[in-house]
Amino acid sequence: MSGKPRLTYFNGRGRMEPVRWLLAAAGVEFEEVFLETREQYEKLIKDGVLLFQQVPLVEIDGMKMVQTRAILSYIAGKYNLYGKDLKERALIDMYVEGITDLMQMILVFPFSPPEEKEKNLDSIKERATNRYFPVFEKVLKQHGQDFLVGNKFSWADVQLIEAILAVEEKIPSVLSGFPQLQAFKIKMSNMPTIKKFLQPGSPRKPPPDERYVETVLKVFKK
Question: Where does the GST N-terminal domain lie (predicted)?
């Protein structure tokens, strides 16, 4: 083992992408193993590596971690991206959970039938502009600071920039009514570790395509 975290998942975004984002934002290099066959997945289960028979799987610090939320919490804590006390951690948790709810809609979007794509896109836009983005616009405006919690870069900021860029890919004008989030996006995108992650050739994955969807369905036999 090289000592680098080892990520096992599909060669696509899915539930592993926030993990890639968080590690990259912390300046941590990692290795990836891509699931491409049902046999690979079944071997992991047979070997007892997947606690709940689910991926993502992250091998870090001698642990074989599953469950995205647990993985992200551990990484955030390890690299000092999880606030300075319980109150800050609670705020980060609240913001992260909200962003995760929005990202869940984007996560399942590639798997929706063609005839439902437009309706689902409208739902993403409606939720982003009326429920989720107004919250973060207000938070940033009220405390007048660069970051969401404690004026210090945290896991919540990483999740938010990931979500902003993911929604913008589908709805380019989505930030038109959110000047604070526009400024936040520019600032975050220019942070050295994030800027590096946004460059071509980084471990950041492109938007899911048909091949990604086919691979996921084949491995899970859905």
Answer: 3-83
